């Protein structure tokens, strides 16, 4: 079983370049299914398990994909199915966003209901409700969501999202590009990844306005054509390096990071005592005094508030802060599983409802720990980098879903970190 070994306490310095955003490329690959003409070229694509899953899903539907380094060429002209393989969708809930494109292009979609995961039940009721508002019917049976457009095709509508769901906004936006008339999505998710998706859709010939605000207008068109698009940098990968560098070292330059995607995190790191400098094509960060943050009160919420995907990482950092901090998780119901692992490293944290109360200690101690979700894995790596002694991180399949070459990137910054792929020996 693969594991990461970290010798804590080594200084981080130098520069690291973040890859393209996982949470932008996934909906963009789904959107490529809308192109009845032409070929798409998606650039700056990270090599991640989730991306591979989505690429396999799109290919299974009949698209022809060709990888060239970090570029994928997608020819969706011969897509001939609206039923992605259940095992692929079941493996990654984000695949559910192929529903909107398939419904728009073929008038039908039969997609496995994604179910929940470690961090919460992860319902898709808002996706279904939004697509029904466009005229589709839906039946959920045998673990599948079966959606059908009316005979004349989807019809634009005014849709209010009870929650600014990232995925629901994406599914509705994509379906609306080929609906008749105008669709207005109110209380839409404002994440940069949704803006990136809208930019790609518009490059394909769609008419999407207002992405990044809470009101998105989509005027339906007859058809879409493949387009070339470079994916935005991954703000969560960038944030992960910023947090690590705020704790340890002589200053790190996170290249390709966009500070306007990270305002809330940067504000918190500066409040904690780190020094941050916004450069032309990246962000420079110098550590807090003595490598220990001032205590913080953090509350995750929808963008542009502090991101839930950076919650585990800041808890790891605040475990050695100079006082008591609180981190409140308002987005997901069960996203504190990494706390038990940090406690094994000596962290003094207790949970009160949706709030983690963290009493900062001098230093963590290395231990054998297991990642429970993608961002928890990143938090445990950060904890290992600052802990005394050796930390062994397991559960790397979570990390591999969202971090492209994380170990190599930290090695380049001077960390003593190695990955071992233990070969199963059948004796
Ligand atoms: C996206 O998930 C991201 N995933 C998540 O990143 C991220 O944590 C999340 O947005 C919030 O920012 C991808 O983009 C692939 P939501 P998504 O729909 O779209 C509730 C990572 O680590 N909800 O915005 O699934 C839901 O239960 C991952 O990269 C409904 O109630 O998130 C949650 O409480 C983890 N009904 C809240 O909304 C619905 O129909 C936000 O979920 C949909 C969502």
Can you tell me about this structure?
- The chain is an alpha/beta fold.
- The protein has two domains: 3-19 and 234-420, Alpha-beta prism (UDP-n-acetylglucosamine1-carboxyvinyl-transferase, Chain); 22-230, UDP-n-acetylglucosamine1-carboxyvinyl-transferase, Chain.
- The chain is 31% helix and 26% strand.
- The strands form seven sheets. Strands 23-24-1-25 form a four-stranded mixed sheet.
- A hairpin with a 5-residue loop joins strand 12 (207-209) and strand 13.
- Helix 5 runs parallel beside helix 6.
- The chain is elongated and about 65 Å long.
- The site of ligand EPZ has 23 residues, from helix 1, helix 5, helix 6 and helix 12.
Essential attributes:
31% helix, 14 helices, alpha/beta, 26% strand, single chain, 427 residues, UDP-n-acetylglucosamine1-carboxyvinyl-transferase, Chain, binds ligand EPZ, 4-stranded mixed beta sheet, 25 strands
What structural class do helix, strand and pairing data support?
Answer: alpha/beta
The radius of gyration over CA amounts to 22 Å
Taking pLDDT < 50 over at least 5 consecutive residues as the criterion, the unreliable ranges are none
Instruction: Write the CATH fold name of the largest domain.
Output: UDP-n-acetylglucosamine1-carboxyvinyl-transferase, Chain
Q: Largest sheet, described in full?
A: 4 strands, mixed
Order of strands in the sheet with most strands: 23-24-1-25
Strand content: 25-35%
Number of domains: 2
Query: What general outline do the C-alpha atoms trace?
Result: elongated
| Helical content (DSSP H or I, runs of 4+) | 25-40%
The CATH architecture of the largest domain can be named as: Alpha-beta prism
């Amino acid at each position: 079983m693969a594991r990461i070994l970290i010798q804590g306490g080594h200084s981080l310095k130098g520069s690291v370049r973040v890859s393209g955003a996982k949470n932008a490329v996934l909906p963009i690959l789904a959107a490529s299914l809308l192109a009845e003409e032409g070929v798409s070229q998606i650039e700056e694509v990270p090599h991640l398990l989730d991306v591979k899953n989505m690429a396999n899903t799109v290919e299974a539907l009949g698209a022809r994909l060709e990888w060239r380094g970090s570029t994928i060429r997608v020819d969706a002209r011969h897509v001939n199915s609206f039923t992605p393989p259940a095992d692929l969708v079941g493996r990654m809930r984000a695949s559910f966003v192929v529903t909107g494109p398939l419904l728009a292009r073929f008038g039908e979609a039969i997609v496995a209901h994604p179910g929940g995961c470690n961090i919460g039940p992860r319902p898709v009721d808002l996706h279904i409700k939004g697509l029904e508002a466009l005229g589709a019917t839906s039946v959920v049976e045998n673990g599948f969501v079966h959606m059908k457009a009316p005979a004349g095709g989807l019809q634009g509508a005014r849709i209010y999202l009870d929650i600014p769901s990232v995925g629901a906004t994406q599914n509705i936006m994509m379906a609306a590009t080929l609906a008749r008339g105008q669709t207005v999505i109110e209380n839409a998710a404002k994440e940069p990844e949704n803006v990136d998706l809208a930019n790609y859709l518009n490059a394909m010939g769609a008419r999407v306005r207002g992405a990044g605000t809470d009101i998105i207008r989509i005027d339906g068109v007859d058809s879409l054509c493949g387009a070339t698009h470079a994916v935005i940098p991954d703000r969560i990968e960038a944030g992960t390096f910023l947090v690590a560098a705020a704790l340890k070292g002589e200053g790190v330059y996170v290249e390709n990071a966009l500070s306007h995607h990270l305002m809330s995190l940067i504000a918190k790191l500066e409040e904690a005592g780190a020094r941050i400098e916004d450069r032309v094509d990246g962000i420079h960060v110098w550590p807090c005094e003595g490598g220990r943050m001032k205590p913080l009160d953090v509350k995750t919420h929808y963008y542009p508030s502090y991101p839930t995907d950076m919650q585990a990482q800041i808890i790891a950092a605040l475990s050695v802060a100079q006082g008591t901090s609180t981190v409140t998780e308002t987005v997901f119901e069960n996203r504190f599983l990494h706390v038990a692992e940090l406690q094994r490293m000596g962290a003094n944290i207790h949970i009160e409802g949706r709030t983690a109360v963290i009493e900062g200690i001098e230093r963590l101690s290395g231990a054998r720990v297991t990642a429970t979700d993608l961002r928890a894995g990143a938090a445990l790596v950060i904890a290992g980098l600052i802990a005394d002694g050796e930390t062994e991180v397991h559960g790397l399949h979570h990390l591999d879903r969202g971090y492209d070459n994380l170990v190599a990137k930290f090695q380049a910054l001077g960390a003593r970190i190695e990955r071992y792929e233990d070969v199963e020996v059948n004796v």
